[in-house]
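Notes from the 1:1 (GR / supervisor)

We went over the backlog. Supervisor wanted to see one worked example end to end before approving the batch request, so GR pasted a single chain during the call. The sequence is below; no edits were made to it. Supervisor asked that the structure be written out right there so they could see what the output format looks like.
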Amino acid sequence: LPGNMDRHHYEMFTKFGDDGFLLHLDNARGFGRHSHDEISILAPLSQCCTIKRTTLLRLQLLAEPEYRLSDVMRESLLQDPLAPVLTEPHLLALDRRLQLILEAVGKCIATFGEATVVANDTAQPQSPAADRARPDT
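Structure output shown during the call:
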């Protein structure tokens, strides 16, 4: 959603030999260019065609007019001492990119069916105690 391609890069800090560590880099362009949507970032979604139901439901909710992602972010960021944190074009880019994600999921569902694409992570697991409490039928 933020179009932040630099989060995919990392370096290994090895100054101290085996005591090195992974170093994630942020090149200070956290929300990328508002006018550019990096479609390649959708490759894992388009190739695997799998998404959790709770994630899909949240994305769909944020696409609804009364819960639009840009509006939710705008309101949330008003409390930040550095407000305005994002410009209006960046906020609108979030809505546009959300639609791209939902379109990619839609293509997956059209190709493979909802049961294959949408992983049901909403089911409540049964505890062993609940199984013991049920009378035998």
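Supervisor's comment: Helices lie at 43-48, 53-62, 69-77, 88-112, 114-117, 128-133.
Batch request approved.
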